[in-house]
Amino acid sequence: MTAETDTPAPxxxxxxxxxxxxxxxxxxxxxxxxxxIPFSEGVTSLLPVARDSHTGEAIAxxxxxxxxxxxLLTLIVFVTGVLRSWFSPERTRAILAGRxxxxxxxLAALLGVLTPFCSxxxxxxFIGFVSAGIPLGVTFSFLIAGPMVGxxxxxxxxxxxxxxxxxxxxxxxxxxxxxxxxxxGRFRLERYLQDWVRELNAGAVVDLPDQRxxxxxxxxxxxxxVREIVGKVWIWVVVxxxxxxxIHGYVPEAMMLAIMGGDAWWSVPAAVVVGVPMYTNxxxxxxxxxxxxxxxxxxxxxxxxxxxxIALSLPEMIILRQVLTLRLIAIFIAVVGAGILATGFLFNxxx
Amino acid sequence: xxxxxxxxxxxxxxxxxxxxxxxxAERLGxxxxxEKVTDPRSIAMAGxxxxxxxxxxxxxxxxxxxxDAARLNEWLSA
Lengths: 351, 78
Known about the structure:
The structure holds two protein chains of two kinds. Chain A has helices spanning 15-34, 36-46, 54-84, 89-97, 104-114, 122-131, 136-148, 151-160, 163-186, 195-199, 215-250, 253-260, 267-275, 282-294, 299-311, 314-320, 326-350. Chain A has one domain. The N and C termini of chain A lie far apart (54 Å). In chain A, α9 runs antiparallel to α17. By secondary structure, chain A is an all-alpha fold. By secondary structure, chain B is of the alpha+beta class. Chain B has one domain (2-77): Glutaredoxin (3-Layer(aba) Sandwich). Helix content of chain B is 41%, strand content 27%. In chain B, β1 (2-7), α1 (12-28) and β2 form a beta-alpha-beta unit. Chain B starts with a strand and ends with a helix. Chain A binds chain B through residues 1, 4-6, 8-11, 88-90, 93, 116-118, 120-121, 123-125, 127-129, 131, 196, 200-201, 204-206, 208-209, 211, 217, 221, 224, 228, 232, 322-323, and chain B through 7-14, 19-20, 23, 26-28, 40-41, 43-51, 60-66, 68-71, 73. Chain B: Keywords: Disulfide bond, Isomerase, Redox-active center. Chain B: Residues 3-76 form the Thioredoxin-like fold domain. Chain B: It holds the Pfam family Thioredoxin_3. Chain B: This is Thiol-disulfide isomerase and thioredoxins.
């Protein structure tokens, strides 16, 4: 709340300005994106370091990647913000509550990707699902798929590493979410919920008054999302790209091959162990992935690292601790971790 | 005196929602009592799945994301 406190119903911009502004912004975006290479090479050549030295390579990576990731991030967050305005957790719950059959798992994973929710909502969401009679396994499929196969991560992978890796990531992330949910469902884990969650009255379903949104409302949601998410995440982007730049400029390829190459079998579990406590997000970890792959690290190892950073974060577990017993959290980590390890080993074996 | 509840575990967005409610009430000259609900059990009991959620006089009017300023005025003055 800033300057708009004295008008009764602030409606900042007229509609036509939105319809005109979005195409103009798209053109500006495209021009900026199209000139990234001349821009970064120009900036690098101004510096008093040789372009082909270690420092020169690292700086060139940094100067190219920071604007690129921020541009991509802005576009992806805006587009998904607009698209996701058609989905809501309430609607998702209504769709899932009607299904118990095997199709519930992939459907939940799909809806997990499409439904907007921030990690601080995951507890109320979890309770809302379980209290509506949605099986625990299906709920887990939803909760795993959301962060793991998020559109932001996929879009950045596509932009920085290429469509092949983005597709592989999508297929395996989706498979892990579906299968892990199904496996967790087979364990009959309901008894490991915290007592009060099990006792919660299933009647707590509230219909919100129909919130019909106009196209301008949806565009506004997109802009709000950009302001909020990019505003929060940019620092992780800079940190991630700095690490990526150091790897790109200074780590010798021979060393990378020895640590994260396809021949070192232990590198996959090691990547998971290193990845879990790292608290960042897709936008921070993908520039690191880009640099690792560029130096010859094996794809399976890198995928395992990325998945464990994004899908098995410790802060997320601490949030879920409010509704799950330690035992259920341990089983959850074990099942998702096994899926990530299997993906890593599989790719290192076939590539 | 209207009683407004803001449901949210305490993230930035939930705090912003609370500030918005208070500012809107002041602007409209309506007396409100704003209560912040952070306990996950109470949030779930109210039927809120995506936070921040807002209820006015016991009726849930909003869940998920920041409320639209114009709609917030409608809820408060209804």
